Amino acid sequence: MKLSYGPMRPPSFYLSWVLALTLGALIADLVLSDSITQVFKENHSIEGMSAILLLVAAGMWFGFGAHRRQPRDWHIPVILILMALRELDFDKAFTTEGILQLRLYSGAAPLWEKAIGAFFVLLILICGLRLAWFNLPRWFRGLRRGDPTSWLVGASSVLLIVAKSLDGIDRKLAPFGISFSRDFVTQSGRFEELMEMVMAILLIQAVIYYARPVRDLGAQRSGQADRGKFSARRITRSTAALVGSAPDSASPTGTQLASSASSPATGKPSR
Fold first, then answer.
1. What is the DSSP secondary structure assignment for residue 98, as one 8-state letter?
2. In which region does residue 35 sit, left (phi positive, over 0), alpha (psi from -120 to 50) or beta (all else)?
3. How far is CA 78 from the centre of its chain?
4. 136-144 and 148-166 helices cross at what angle (nearest 10)?
5. What is the pTM of this model?
């Protein structure tokens, strides 16, 4: 099957659609919820959209042909999918303890749960090592030359770090004797969910900017091939027209012109 290439639309086009869908989900959730608190809970618009947007980013990676630019970067869409599954709490849904909890492996959990958890932990480690080895140097170079992809990934990474720092901040700092008011804990939790959603939007834009050179190059090559075929057809038609308009020696006109031609030896008309 022949793949057809075409120039991508500007990144602002995709950003406007992502923002419109996100806003639509938030409006629908606000209308159907009894209070603002429910909007920030699990299985509601903010956390749900974070997971959906991460899956959309992974889908765009393949849909826009980013996997053709660097086939060895297969770990990037895998990381996006794992992050989406984490937002949906899949890491705790099928095992007694979360697969990232040491209790799952040191406790009395069934062997099959430990095997599943070990598989995903190993996959996460492999993807993390590949990300550091293959992409971290390119990311630093991209930051220096102002590459939009690198800056979008950097901004999303900062948001992710801050969001995970705010997640359960009261529980994390309780051993140090630091406590927070209930309002602060609630507001920080909401801020965390919002930052994760914005992070997913930035990652979608990063994938789009990353994929644009691939699609533009494909469109350029396709256009060059089409122009080459068009030029070849024009040359063929022009040649056929010239051949068709040449005098035919078998025709009376061709015979007359041939007989009136000068002899190359005498310079006189041949008889």
1. -
2. beta
3. 12
4. 120
5. 0.76
